[in-house]
Every structure is written in C-alpha cells, then in structure tokens.
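As the work plan foresaw, the team has encoded backbone shapes as discrete tokens. One protein thus recorded appears below exactly as we store it.

:::
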Amino acid sequence: MKKLSARRRHPLAAVVVLLLALAATGGLYAAFAPADTAQADQTAQSLAIEEGKKLYTVGCASCHGTDGEGTTDGPSLVGVGSAAVDFQVGTGRMPAQQPGAQVPKKKNIYTQAEIDQLAAYVASLGAGPITPTEQQYSPTGADVAKGGELFRTNCAQCHNFTGKGGALTNGKYAPTLEGVSAKHLYEAMQTGPQNMPSFPDGVMPEQEKRDIIAYVETMNDPKVASSPGGITLGGLGPVSEGLFAWVAGLGALIAAAVWVAAHTAKAKKS
C-alpha cells in the first residue's frame, strides 16, 4: 500500500490520468457518434417515406394501386426507383391528366421537397435507379464532340439530329429536348420513360451520358441553334437543305417552262 500511495503522489500521475481520460472520451465518441448519425439519417428517411406515402395516396394511387402494384390504368411502380419519380413528376408528366398514347409534359404541381418524398416512398417499394447527384449529370468538362457521336447513334432516330423531336407510330412521339434540364436528361437516359429505351450504366456509362448532355445543351444554346442558312428543315445541315431548295427551284422552273410552252400561239393552233 505504501508503494501504491507513493505512485499516486508521483508528479506525472496527473498527466497520466488526463491522457487516460482523453483516450476514454475519444473511444466513447468513436463508438457512439456514427451510430447516432446513422440513426438520424434513418429517421429522416422514414419520415420522408411516410410523407411520400400520403402524397402518393392522394395523387397516384387511383392509377398505380394503393401499394404501387399497378392497375389497368397505370403500370406497377415497384422497382422503378427514385430517378423515375423525379423525372416523371418533376417534368409534370405525372400525375397524368388522362390516359393516352403519350403523356405530355406540363406544369409541375409539386415542390421539389414533395417530389423527394414521393420518390423516397416509391423507392421503398423496390430497388431501382437512384436520383443522380449534380456531379453525375453536370456537363462541365464533358466531351461535346463525343456526345454528338453518341447522340446521332442512339438518340437522333427519334429526337432528330438537333433534338427537335419527331413523330413515332400509333400517335406517339419523341418530345423536343429544348429546355430540358441536365438532371432530367440524365434521368430519362437512366430510366427510359414511356417509349424511350433505358440506358443503364452497364450499357451507357455515366461519362457518356454527360457527353450527350453537353451536346444537347450546346445545340440548345441560342448562339449555336441559329441557322445561318435560313429556315431550318429540322437541322439536316446546309448541304442537304441547299439541295432541297435547288431541286424545288428547278422543278418550279420546269413547271413554268411547260406551262409557257403549252400556252404559246403555235400550241393553241395545233
């Protein structure tokens, strides 16, 4: 006991006790702080899902079923993911005014916070594409020329060479891409809304989607979109548009020549 008392009275005893206390505090923080953060995130997500279910019941359940299982008026939403909800609701296509071959874009009636809650609820029904972050869809630093090649290969058949849109079969159409945000362009490629095929990352990597977005935004730039050749024909280019004008003009001249020849005095006598 005398030996232990002597150690307690050692000049460095207080320093040792302080270091042990700091170590114990750090250990307790490391053990419990991450759990608190994770629990807070889980609680926030649960609240978002709960609020999203209320919005879903009012605005979506009549067509998609009470649990998103789908009905004769609307497809199942199980597994479509939060990205599809963010695109469809964010562009005003959903809730749809009426069923039809193509659901048009219209004014959005939900706030972004409500869209996030709806997306959280639908995402809870089954795993699917997740709403992208700004870093994923930002065209900053993307390759516009590469995006043009990808667009002409994968998109121009329906959306036209300059994204002006075009008609499809049975009353369907590919909408214009003018004014569509980078986020919604990315989500459309990710989820394949309505008649459009989807391009998941396994088919089209994230970088290629960003290249296409950069190309579309470049084509929508007023400085680039203006046509130096006059009235556009869907952006086919000055050579093809000039050829069309030349053929039409030549046909008009031939028609005029035939009409004049048919109305000469000699032609009338014969």
